[in-house]
Design goal:
Aldehyde Dehydrogenase, Chain A, domain 1; Aldehyde Dehydrogenase, Chain A, domain 2; 7-stranded mixed β-sheet; 478 residues; 14 helices; single chain; 6-stranded mixed β-sheet; 24% strand; alpha/beta; 39% helix; 23 strands
Length: 478
């Protein structure tokens, strides 16, 4: 069995404990044993990053561009190999995994360009003989804590801007997906990242993540994960004077009006709800349909949903892979049982038996629901979508906003009037018109409102707000 170590200060470092990484599509397929970091390893990584920061922060934009561009090219060049590994350990279909690795490469290349696009401003002072310069500088050392559902892309969109603007990184991936993280850091090391600039700590959140939040040697934390964990991290970071950026999920609405092209709407709902096994924070988990097309549209969704092929992530014909692990599978089934107990009607949602032993669940559509049911309040994070019947657009908008979350929201309509009104009045950070709520570009900001997000936006030029600090300098020219 292959063993994989943590990366601290430019060296691969073993640990006393390891965790076995198993393919959720085939429980007999063991990917490897991965080191489990300790609190002491966090201290060592912090020391290495802080030692590396003075030199790295003073590198030229060209040096940082060259490094990040090499990483992007390596990711794209090794896309097939890395995509297969991602599919094995996370369970998303091979096509989705290949696309994610390619996207990670594009993200590194984009932020290579951002290193060159850094700029400041010169402003006249209100005082005679004084000039004012406003510049941005790197902050220091960032802790990056990432989820399991996008094990290459999300680390890329956090680490790439941190490095582009001259910061050092301590990276803790989710426990379920250490292999993708290990390969990403290995690529960074091979591309020539200086010792200590990037550090990898695989391990448990309650050990490694806790220590990263507690230590004064880390200047900021970027976290993507659950609301409960994010809230704890945010409170403690603020009390310790750390920068904090939180992405914590969604309960995203997709409104379907009676003037919509129902084929387009069905495509958007099926994609948003069930692709990536529904394990996306931007998934269309609440489908809100006006009453005069409700029954017809539900019939269409059920028909399309039942035609989706569930199976091994590595099978090129598979459209819905397994859920990530046994715990997630049990959670999905528990929410379906609760929905039934509350009076909902569930289509699908049974376990699927495939050629290999894995965590396979048929996509489920939950109908006859109300906005107050638990299935419509909590983020389930599986191939499950609920349907809420409403009278008209006004009620649809009210139901769409009736949630603690505010990440992504969609509407399917042929009306420019309703589309424009929805874009302005829905309480979400991202709005989709006649397309799935899931699926975003890397060159524009990503994030939401309310319980979904806290702190500056991720991705695009907006990432600069979190990973740099502003300095204002006054110069007496007299």
């Amino acid at each position: 069995m292959n063993s994989y170590e943590n990366y601290i200060g430019g060296a691969w470092v073993p640990s006393e404990e390891v965790s076995r990484n198993v393919n959720p599509s085939d429980l007999a397929d063991v990917i490897g044993d991965y080191a489990q970091a300790s609190e002491r390893d966090v201290d060592r990584a912090v020391d290495a990053a802080r030692a590396a920061f003075p030199s790295w922060s003073m590198t030229t934009p060209q040096q940082r561009f060259d490094l990040l561009d090499r990483v992007g090219s390596d990711l794209i060049g090794r896309g097939v190999e890395l995509g297969r590994l991602l599919a094995r350990e996370e369970g998303k279909t091979l096509n989705e995994a290949l696309a994610e690795v390619r996207r990670a490469g594009q993200i590194f290349k984009f932020f290579a360009g951002e290193a060159l696009r850094s700029n400041g401003e010169i402003a006249p002072s209100i005082r005679e003989g004084i000039s004012v310069e406003v510049t941005r500088e790197p902050v220091g050392v960032f802790g990056i804590i990432t989820p399991w559902n996008f094990p290459v892309a999300i680390p890329a969109w956090k680490m790439a801007p941190a490095l582009a603007f001259g910061n050092c990184v301590i990276f803790k991936p989710a426990e379920q997906v250490p292999a993708s993280a290990w390969e990403l850091v290995s690529i960074l090391a091979e591309a020539g990242v200086p010792d200590g600039v990037v550090n990898l700590l695989m391990g448990q959140g309650n050990i490694v993540g806790e220590a990263m939040v507690e230590t004064p040697g880390i200047d900021g934390i970027s976290f993507t994960g659950s609301v409960s964990t994010g809230a704890r991290i945010g409170t403690r970071c603020v009390s310790r004077g750390k920068r904090v950026q939180l992405e914590m999920g969604g309960k995203n609405p997709m409104v379907v009006l009676d003037d919509a092209d129902l084929d387009v709407a069905a495509d958007a709902c099926i994609n948003g709800a069930f692709f990536s096994t529904g394990q996306r924070c931007t998934a269309s988990s609440r489908i809100i349909v006006v009453e005069n097309i409700h029954d017809l549209f539900v019939e269409q969704l059920v028909r399309r949903m039942k035609s989706l092929r569930v199976g091994s992530a590595l099978n090129e014909l598979t459209q819905v892979g397994p859920v990530v692990d046994a715990r997630q599978l049990e959670q999905d089934e528990r929410y379906l049982a609760i929905a039934k107990d509350e009076g909902a009607v569930v289509y699908g949602g049974e376990r699927v038996h495939c050629e290999t032993d894995g965590f396979f669940l048929a996509p489920a559509l939950v109908t006859n629901t109300t906005s107050r049911m638990r299935i419509n309040r909590k983020e389930v994070f599986g191939p499950i979508a609920s349907v809420i019947k409403v009278k008209n657009y006004d009620e649809a908008l009210a139901v769409a906003n009736d949630t603690e979350f505010g990440l992504s929201a969609g509407i399917c309509t042929a009306s420019l009037k309703y589309a424009a009104h929805f874009k302005r009045h829905v309480k979400a950070g991202m709005v989709m018109v006649n397309t799935a709520t899931a699926g975003v570009d890397y060159h524009v900001p990503f994030g939401g409102r309310k319980a979904s997000s806290f702190g500056p936006r991720e991705q695009g030029s907006y990432a600069r707000e979190f990973y740099t600090t502003v300095k204002t300098a006054y110069v007496n020219c007299g």
